[in-house]
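Render DNA polymerase IV in 3D.
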Amino acid sequence: MKSDVDAYYPSNGRVILHVDMNAFYCSVHEAEEPEKYRGKATAVAGSIELRKGIIVTCSYAARQRGISTGMHVNRALKLCPDLIVIQPNFHLYRKYSNAFMKIAYSYTPLMQATSIDECYLDITGSRQFGTPQQIAEEIQRRIDEELALPCSVGIAPNKLLAKMASDMKKPRGISVLRIRDVARILWDKPCGELFGIGGKTAEKLRKIGIYTIGQLAKTEEETLTRAFGVVGVWMKQAANGIDHSPVLEEREQNKSIGHTTTLPTDIQAREDVNRVLLNISDQVARRLRRQELVAGGIQITIRTPDMKTITRSRALATPTENANDIYDEARRLYAEHWNWDKPVRLLGITLQQLTPKCESAIQLDLFEYEKQPKKESLTQAMDMLRNKFGENAVVTAGMLGDDPSVLLRNHKLRGTSLQMDYVNKEGLDLP
């Protein structure tokens, strides 16, 4: 005889949760300084002075005032003069991300993080914690009580519907979406609201007379494959609420690690360029070590004041995790492929051909072999200090230059990128 809890679990199916943090970056700042930000209209954005004045996310109080993601800060301030604009702090966001995922992971080892603020959980085998609704409520409650962060949770038989369900009630919602509910709840919505269909794909669907998810669900598969290829099969299945993709326990290994910095002012002097490259090399090397990887290739990105972008790359003679090695190669690439009399607006470094450090044979000559243990000890100590006190706890002399005032400017440069550390690989937008 089934217990009351077992009755909520299918005998031959899955139960998936999608945990989605609400206005994550703003919520993190509110959790850190509630007296300053609670209930206020806030937005996380790059500064106008550093030419990154775009809203990355905003609080729900700000959304009620007409503020939205992607809006320029100038326009947002006109709509909401009392808007509090906060500089991004990705070290802090990663700290809270790790904390909420640790809570989620305690209910199932089948957890897949798809971005810094969301994850899937396969709780099919988690009956000991209660019904799916009870587990969702407990995860939501613990994240709120332990971290002071709001989240929404979707409950469904697959990842697609769980993601759709978590979007149904925000903030602090819990929603259930079953296969039998798809026609009633989703079919009258535009195709662009189906997770995985981007704006370009939705427009292409409209051009062939398909406007709603319901119409997409009923369209002949042959029609869709003729217009979209094999993806057409997936689209029809998704519109009918069908998704067989598993919850992956581990994220795919990154194919590359990169960082770009838009500069406060255009630069061209050798010492300024090298200082920025050293800063970026330090950041990407630290992220590389954090994932216990080494890089076998490097690419630099240069953008001119007129927004022309070029990239140049080369393979490394020996895989490395060392910032100095990365910096040396980046300087060589820049000097070989760019004239010093030409100003640049943006610089970036991307590490490629990544492999686990434990699987890589790093060759050292006799002198380097003797120095290596000391180098690794120093690097580990620097990483430990930064983990505890923040990214700017340790700054090398090369980052400062001859003028002490460069310290402040350099610290600003280190925080100008708005790149995400996680990429949602579930999205789909066809050209």
